Amino acid sequence: MRLPWSRQGRAGTLRTGDATDKEHLSQFIRTRQGVEAFLEPRTAVTETTLLLVAGDGEWTRRRVGGPDAAAAFTRKNNVPLYEAARVGYPQRMREWTARQKEAGGASP
User: Fold this and answer.
1) Residue 77 three-state SS
2) What string of pLDDT tens digits covers the 108 residues of the chain?
3) Which of 48, 45, 46 is nearest to 37 (CA)?
4) CB-based contacts of 93, cutoff 8 Å, min separation 6
5) Which residues lie below 8 Å from residue 21, measured CB to CB, with a gap of 6+?
6) CB contact at 8 A, 48 and 40
7) Are 25 and 70 in contact (CB under 8 A)?
8) Measuring CA to CA, how many Å separate 19 from each of 15, 55, 57, 58?
9) What is the pTM of this model?
């Protein structure tokens, strides 16, 4: 059985989100205004991820246990959830990243 936030430890198995990932996302939501969530589907090299974007464009990304886990997490935290593959990413995120690069900072 695969738990939504459990770590998969076998070699060759993609790691899914764990409690540390969930806490990071929760803290981001608690400490930022206007947060929206973007679900990024699993790929050949990365498990499903949840990208959070604050109102000012600051963003963070962590693995989650799949679309259902992401939906439950965002519902619990009253954050709107969008499918990144359908709606794309907000312009404010790209602008924030460009400002970070200009200032010599690193992206999350």
Assistant:
1) coil
2) 444 444 445 555 566 778 899 999 999 999 999 999 999 999 888 899 999 999 999 999 999 999 999 999 999 999 999 999 999 999 999 999 999 998 886 666
3) 48
4) 53, 57, 59
5) 5, 62, 63, 64
6) yes
7) no
8) 12, 25, 25, 22
9) 0.82
Distance CA 21, CA 24 (A): 5
- 27, two tokens: 């803290």
Length of the chain: 108
Question: Using CA atoms, how far apart are residues 102 and 108, in angstroms rounded to an integer?
Answer: 15
Q: How far is CA 3 from the centre of its chain?
A: 18
- Determine the residue type at 92: R
Find out whether 74 and 43 touch, Cβ atoms under 8 Å: no
At 30, list the tokens.
């608690």
